[in-house]
Specification:
The chain is α+β, with helices and mostly antiparallel strands. The protein folds into three domains: 160 residues, GAF domain (Beta-Lactamase); 156 residues, GAF domain (Beta-Lactamase, 2-Layer Sandwich), CATH 3.30.450; 152 residues, Reverse transcriptase/Diguanylate cyclase domain (Alpha-Beta Plaits), CATH 3.30.70.270. It contains 14 helices and 19 strands. The strands form four sheets. Strands 6, 7, 8, 9, 10, 11 and 12 form a seven-stranded antiparallel sheet that branches. Helix 1 runs antiparallel to helix 2 and helix 11 packs across helix 12. The chain is elongated and about 115 Å long.
Length: 509
């Protein structure tokens, strides 16, 4: 039975009431297309938005057989489609036969079951923001009265969607400002680099659709990028450092130009070749934004967000990531400076070993741990033999070179968990957790032999200076009451090694 104007108006009002309580634009679009298709007795219906900046059609919601698949449907760049045609003309388009139509590509026409389409522009403030497309299985004409009614419904849908877009835009801006404020708070509240980087990631993830994220810091001395945080496939993953000279990729380009880079679809072979795209594993991302982390005239690294969907990022997203990167650079530099001050406060400036004060902080902690879990622990105390002769004969500069060379040699002989400290002058201490006496003796001998093989060039290059050390070893299993007693015992054994001829290892009783 044909619907009169009164009944049509009643159903249109009911449609309005049904959709205005929606709080999400996609939910609203779904409710609209469901009811509009029923109201206009269509077999299928579609709502798509138009991105004027990228000249791209964005499928949103569908009624009919493509309800679930349509939002992820991909329209190729430049491919004829009704939404793009409506954005171009701003007028309703009635397609009686989609086969051979200039407004619909053959590929799209073959994928959708409808033979005839009625395309209605969704407009706000004189600009087309999208389209409602009603599909009919059989070929048919569209009488003027039917088109007029459909246009009334489209105007109502335009109003509802435009209002929702404004609300979502305000909500988005609020979320972005909140995220930027949190990053700003991190600048002032936290000096731990790992926590600062994690905060930056969490705030980016909260306001930008992303499948991959990385923050890379640049070491200009080594020409290397390291990745304190790399997120992909739903989890934070370890990611190896990369030499930029060997494999620059998009990050290398950003570091060199100091400019942001936005790639709508990095999966295109020509794009991969042009930018030397570096695959990081997992499902490859398509849309890419990378921006430099700039602090004054220095580039600290690169911040990147990526999506597995092509063409999802606009200039607005680039500006947002740039703003985040600007704040992030300050936070990262503050954390780096704080970390450097912390490092300087616990290390010896000449040798890079821990200083005496930090040894007296860490040593008792290791001793307490060993005692609690009844695990062995050893301390090596050593002294450079006849060190004063180096200073007296060749000057303090050579003495410093000897100290640095000895420290470098020791670091090559011990594990990462071992503690290495400069006790004072030419005296050093090595703390060996989880080490029984026999293994400690082997480590001490390895250190002695490695230093015995060391040669330091004299200032005039006329000779190679021979360096040796005397070492004392003590172990917690021999009954030491505390770390200081263990240290004193190793020191006494070192003095015995000196007495017994130098360049040797002595074990404490």
């Amino acid at each position: 039975m044909e619907m009169d104007d009164h009944e049509f108006a009643r159903r249109l009002n009911a449609l309005t009431e049904a959709v205005l309580d929606k709080s999400d634009i996609r939910d609203m679009a779904q409710a609209l297309v469901d009811r509009l298709a029923a109201l206009c007795e269509a077999d299928s219906g579609y709502i798509a938005f138009w991105d004027a900046e990228r000249r791209a059609t964005i499928p949103v919601a569908a009624f009919g057989p493509h309800r679930d698949s349509y939002p992820s449907f991909r329209i190729e760049s430049g491919e004829p489609n009704l939404t793009a045609s409506l954005a171009e003309t701003g007028r309703t388009l009635a397609v009686e036969d989609s086969a051979g139509s200039e407004f619909v590509s053959p590929r799209i026409a073959s994928l959708f079951s409808a033979r005839s389409f009625l395309g209605l522009p969704l407009a706000s403030d004189g600009k087309v923001m999208g389209a409602i497309i009603l599909g009919y299985s059989l070929r048919r004409a569209f009488p003027p009265e039917e088109i007029s009614r459909a246009e009334r419904a489209a105007r109502l849908a335009s109003f509802a969607l435009a209002k929702m877009r404004l609300l979502e835009e305000e909500r988005r801006r609020t979320e972005e400002l909140t995220a930027l404020n949190r990053i700003g708070m991190a600048i002032n509240a936290d000096r731990d680099l790992d926590r600062v980087v994690r905060t930056i990631f969490e705030q980016c993830r909260g306001i930008i659709a992303l499948d991959t994220f990385y923050l890379a810091l640049y070491d200009d001395e080594r020409d290397e990028l390291r990745f304190p945080l790399f997120y992909d496939d739903g989890k934070i993953l370890p990611f190896a450092a990369r030499r930029i000279g060997e494999n620059p990729g998009m990050s290398g380009l950003i570091l060199r130009t100091r400019k942001p880079l936005c790639i709508p679809d990095a999966s295109i072979p020509e794009v991969q070749e042009a930018y030397k795209v570096v695959r990081a594993g997992g499902k490859p991302a398509k849309a890419y934004i990378g921006v430099p982390l700039l602090y004054g005239d220095r580039v600290l690294g690169v911040l990147s967000v990526q999506s597995q969907q092509a063409n999802v990022y606009t200039s607005r997203h680039v500006q947002l990531v740039e703003t985040i990167a600007a704040q992030s650079a300050i936070a990262i530099e503050n954390a780096r400076l704080y970390g450097e001050l912390q490092r300087q406060s616990i290390t010896d400036g000449l040798t890079g070993a821990y200083n005496f004060r930090h040894l007296l902080e860490l040593g008792p902690m290791e001793f307490a741990k060993a005692s609690r879990y009844e695990r062995p622990m050893a301390v090596l105390f050593f002294d450079i033999d006849r060190f004063r002769d180096f200073n007296n004969s060749y000057g303090h500069a050579i003495g410093n070179e000897v100290l640095k060379a000895v420290a470098d040699t020791v670091r090559a002989c011990i594990r990462e968990i071992d503690l290495f400290a400069r006790f004072g002058g030419e005296e050093f201490v090595i703390v060996l957790p989880e080490t029984p006496p026999d293994v400690a003796a082997l480590v001490a001998e390895r250190v002695r032999a490695s230093i015995d093989a060391l040669r330091v060039s004299a200032p005039d290059g006329s000779e190679e200076l021979h360096v040796t050390v005397s070492l004392g070893v003590s172990c917690s299993c021999r009954g030491a009451a505390d770390f200081q007693q263990l240290l004193d015992s190793a020191n006494a054994a070192e003095r015995e090694a000196k007495t017994n001829g130098r360049n040797r290892v002595e074990m404490a009783p």
